[in-house]
Amino acid sequence: MSRFTDTLNAQVGNEFGASQQYVAIAVWYDTETLPQLATFFYRQAVEERNHAMMLVQYLLDAGEEVVIPGIGAPQITFAGPVEPVALALAQERRVTDQITALAEIAREERNRIGEQYMQWFLKEQLEEMSSMSALLKTVERAAAVNILLAEDYLARAASGAAGVEADAPRAAGGVL
Q1: 72 and 84 in contact (C-beta within 8 Å)?
Q2: CB burial class (10 A; 0-12, 13-18, 19+) of residue 63?
């Protein structure tokens, strides 16, 4: 296997790990009776799972070996409503670094198809970091007054939520 394929297989695990972390965050918010924050993170969990399946589909399409790595347990306890979003932003930054490294490895290996494929994920990561950064600022401000203000914000923002992008890569199993 090439270094790109090895790293892409590792990224499948990273994406599944991100998904599981978002489920844990959603469950924590559900337990705290903050349904809008819970719903936001349940959706994020599905999105991260789909990213893993998109990478699996790429490997299948490229005729490469697919290895589904194990993942560690997510963090399940938090000190307050700000901590889960701060963790999520740190996770998005880490994933951005991982995707950037994948694009660079593809370029180094002169794998133009792999490099081009990673461009969609780079664009997606910019959106994810921006969204999570805005949510963190909102939750920080709301928590100082009343965390239910963040719930109101998310309820208003959810009305404009978009579906799957038309240019998104295909996910293995055809499930999005």
Answers
A1: no
A2: exposed
pLDDT in tens, 43-97: 999 999 999 999 999 999 999 999 999 999 999 999 999 999 999 999 999 999 9
Pairwise CA distance, residues 42 & 48, whole Å = 10
Q: What is the CA radius of gyration of the chain?
A: 17
- Between 82-108 and 35-61, two packed helices, what is the crossing angle to 10 degrees? 10
By residue range, what is the domain housing residue 73? Answer: 3-159
Phi then psi dihedrals of residue 154, to 5 deg: -65, -35
Q: How many domains does the chain have?
A: 1
State the Cα–Cα distance between residues 36 and 107, nearest whole angstrom.
Answer: 41
Distance CA 173, CA 170 (A): 9
Tokens found for residue 123: 């664009």
Q: Are 13 and 76 in contact (CB under 8 A)?
A: no
45 belongs to a structural domain: yes
Task: Look at the alpha carbons of 1, 56, 169, 87 in this order and tell me if their dihedral is positive or negative.
Answer: negative
At 95, which CATH number? 1.20.1260.10
Q: Which two tokens stand for residue 23?
A: 């489920």
pTM over 0.70, yes/no: yes
